[in-house]
Amino acid sequence: MDVAHDLVGAQIVADAGSADEVRACIVEVEAYLGQEDPASHAFRGPTPRASIMFGQAGHLYVYLSYGMHHCANVVCGPDGAAAAVLLRAATVTRGEAVVRARRGPAAMSERLLSGPGNLCRGLAIAGGDNGADLCRPGRLHLEARSGEAPVSSGPRVGITRAADLPLRFWWTGHPAASRAPRTRKGTGAEAGPRSSADLSRPPGG
Asked: Is the dihedral of CA 83, 88, 90, 95 positive or negative?
């Protein structure tokens, strides 16, 4: 959970040094706890799809949800732990024109990368990026946040198993985080309608 918390405010960088370079600040994530977590793809062990989760931390686990949207996860923890953090939302800090060309003109600037599917579409993350080392220079890499971020936590969204665990972390009040017309009393959890791209399944959802 520490990794998930610390990813809020970190930068994800795509295609650095090219005309398509995009930099984005991560503002919402969800943690999945491997074989201890019934909502995780790793719950049933190292299947062909989830095998990357059982490997080295810092690599990207990408899968296709509903046959439409890719979802990106950062593998974390020791080898074999199969823990991962789903990247749910980010905000563009460089390369908005590149992202908008991929997302279309209708999306508001602050929500261009809101939702796991939209985040992947805006950063051009697809199946070919599965297994990418995010800790080394490459098409995709992560940069640690430079200071503190105001982080809230609450239950994960869009799942039915282990749905009450407070494993979602988001930049408090950020417009790119999951929208919610109501708040569950005492949890800080947000709940509400989302777009189909926001509904991309988390690991195991």
From this structure: positive
